[in-house]
Amino acid sequence: MTVTDQATGGATQPAELRRQGRVGVITLNAAPVNALGARLRAAIRARIEEAEADPEIGAVVLTGAGRLFSAGADIAEFDGAADGPDLGELIDRVEDTEKPVVAAIHGQALGGGLELALACHHRLATPSAKLGLPEVKLGLVPGAGGTQRLPRLVGPRIAAEMIVTGKTVGAKAAQAAGLLDAVTAEDGLIADAVTFAEALLAEGKPIRRTRERDERLLEARDESGLFDAVRADNAKLFRGFEAPQACLDCVRAATDLPFAEGLAFERDTFRRLMRGAQSIAQRHVFFAEREVARIPDLPADTPTRPIHRVGIVGAGLMGGGIAMNFLNAGIPVTIVEAAPEALERGLGLIRKNYEASAKKGRLRPEDVTTRMALLTDSLDFEALAACDLVIEAVYENRDLKRSIFERLDRIAKPGAILATNTSFLDVDAIAAVTSRPQDVIGLHFFSPANVMRLLEVVRAEKTAPDVVATAMRLARTIGKIAVQVGVCFGFVGNRLLDQRQREADRLILDGALPRDVDRVLQGFGLPIGPFAMMDLVGLDLGWSREASKGESVRDILCERDRRGQKTGAGFYDYDESRRATPSEEAEAIIREVAQRRGITQRTVSDQEILERCLYPMVNEGAKILAEGKAWRASDIDVVWINGFGWPVYTGGPMHWGDAVGLPTIVESLRRLEAEHGPDFKPTPLLERLAAEGKSFSEFDRERSAKRG
Ligand code: 3HC
């Protein structure tokens, strides 16, 4: 029986104390990730007090059960008042312990989990362990002493870098930096930690508390410009985000202030950020990205189909990018093209991409060889017969795609999943040309497919549940975040994009300049404005001279060979290094089209640009929900954050809509409807939620409660 069992009569505790000789081993045991919620905090404090009071125990090892040490504070607690000891107080209490405490880390020690380890008097970890303070990704600073203790162990530069980026470090690097005392054997963590603790007892040296160690701070005190350099090195992370600067300020406080004052500064900063809109939005995204994997009518035990080989039709940019995802995950791929030159080009591009990654040190040279060896190419469709999943990735043409599916139906083995990578087309209609619509699904990758995290899993009317479950599982295997969507024009992502594009196109006729629209939307936090984006993609995508009526701005730009960056001109002019400058010619074309349509151009305010571009997206999101094409509002947020770079600190379009206030949005849409027509008509769901004083997150909660 453990010491804890004796105290509790055998009931399982979130933290248990077991004695091994003179060492008390406290094990955190709160599945799945040992998040430091109220119960676990209370249990750790109790076990520490028991160990301290037990005369048989001379030293303590603190470790975690399950797959990791601890994922940190319980994020789900942040929105309510938490019970029991505050995490910061608990961690201070651990540091105060009169007997040496050794943290024994495996898996990961993150956030509050690492802060707990930092307050232990020694730290050991397995070779595969990872350590980090990822709070910044939740719009926070570490709030339980991390910004004060980490610089004391590793120096302010490494600490600032780790805290600002939120990246984890491996055990070896952590040891080199001074964060770990030693790296143990992979399988002998507890035994090694107990031996380490026994050695401490034998030595009988006084306890060294992290808060008292300031030699590393002194070392760096004169390094002027250190914080500016960290900011400059990570400039991208600071754009629009509040937390990274707050992280730097806290580490600076560690170097400038006595420990207690630095700690108080950190705690105030943490509390301020936690109540702020950015962290609320980023926490929403954290949970939304996990919730999205749960499909209400697909029980967790839905069977999946084994996928040993993936076939890809089309070796273009998209097909090649899709292939790389599977090769990266060690899954063999057969890629088929109609023409030898196209196949050659496609294979060359894949190899070039890998070689570029190897050059940058992101891949080992031998990985390039291993991955390319998993790739089989063919000009013969029959080669797809051996595949368990075939993804069609040819250009967006309904008849072409349907003819490919007719062929796949004849060739593919029974039970193979047949997927189309369409962006807009009707997956039901594609499925209907086969004799096995239950095996057909849409897998909408975003370009570049080997980089973008989003995958829209388009569930058609007859798609079998195990096919959906397989797609969701496979997405995880290849590191994508999958969102199940229903069949409709543009699915979720492009359907919202269409709304924004329509208004952007109208705004420039009304008098806004392309650069105004781009500036406002970029200022909002989107990575690129709609006109710069069109120039980047190419204005002639889906355009042809024969079909052009010469009526729209785009028609005329294309006719004049202003087809975007690739022709050196589009909505903007471009120099040799593709730097954009405003274009007199494009602006004259816009004025001309406006005049022809009888539009009197006027000054358009930034606020009008923002409202006209973004409110219809929220409205369309509500329509999608009402039609059941997405399960949750938060799924729509996940799509736009991962597929289009919507700023995570506003939580996605639907969360942002909630933050603006649905009544405000409805009121503006009604006004815009009166001025500009029915495209702005608020959808009934949006009107209802606004009238009832409800938000999309309440809608999600109610819907999920109804589904039980
Ligand atoms: N709090 C609450 N729940 C958490 C959690 C946390 N810190 N970390 C993970 N979870 C939950 C997830 O929501 C998920 O729940 P679900 O199964 O109900 O959806 C479950 O644990 C498993 O998580 P994942 O699906 O993410 O599992 P993975 O194996 O893919 O990843 C992980 C594990 C790397 C630990 C990842 O969950 C993660 O990055 N967690 C967050 C780590 C973090 O940000 N820590 C800092 C917290 S803030 C803090 O500590 C403040 C302090 O400074 C005061």
Structural description of this entry:
By secondary structure, the protein is α/β, with parallel strands linked by helices. The chain has 4 domains: 273 residues, Alpha-Beta Complex (2-enoyl-CoA Hydratase, Chain A, domain 1); 180 residues, NAD(P)-binding Rossmann-like Domain (Rossmann fold), CATH 3.40.50.720; 85 residues, N-(1-d-carboxylethyl)-l-norvaline Dehydrogenase, domain 2; 102 residues, N-(1-d-carboxylethyl)-l-norvaline Dehydrogenase, domain 2 (Orthogonal Bundle). The chain contains 31 helices and 19 strands. The strands form 4 sheets. The chain has an 8-stranded mixed sheet, sandwiched between helices. A 6-stranded mixed sheet has the order 1-2-3-4-6-9, sandwiched between helices. Strands 5-7-8 form a 3-stranded mixed sheet. Helix 20 links the parallel strand 16 and strand 17. Helix 4 crosses helix 5 and helix 29 crosses helix 30. It is globular, with a radius of gyration of 29 Å. The model has no long low-confidence stretch (mean pLDDT 95).
What's the helix and strand layout?
Blueprint lengths: L2 H6 L6 E6 L2 E6 L9 H16 L5 E6 L22 H10 L4 E5 L2 E3 L1 H8 L2 E4 L4 E3 L13 H9 L1 H10 L3 E2 H7 L4 E2 L5 H15 L11 H7 L4 H8 L1 H4 L4 H14 L2 H17 L1 H15 L18 E4 L3 H12 L4 E4 L3 H20 L5 H9 L1 E4 L10 E4 L5 H14 L5 E4 L6 H6 L7 E6 L8 E6 L5 H13 L3 E6 L6 H18 L3 H11 L5 H8 L15 H7 L12 E3 L5 E3 L1 H13 L9 H22 L5 H12 L8 H8 L1 H15 L7 H8 L4 H12 L1
Parallel strand pairs: 2-3, 3-4, 4-6, 5-7, 6-9, 10-11, 10-13, 11-12, 13-14, 14-15, 16-17
Antiparallel strand pairs: 1-2, 7-8, 15-16, 18-19
The structure holds 3-hydroxybutanoyl-coenzyme A (3HC).
3-hydroxybutanoyl-coenzyme A (3HC) binds next to strand 5 and helix 4.
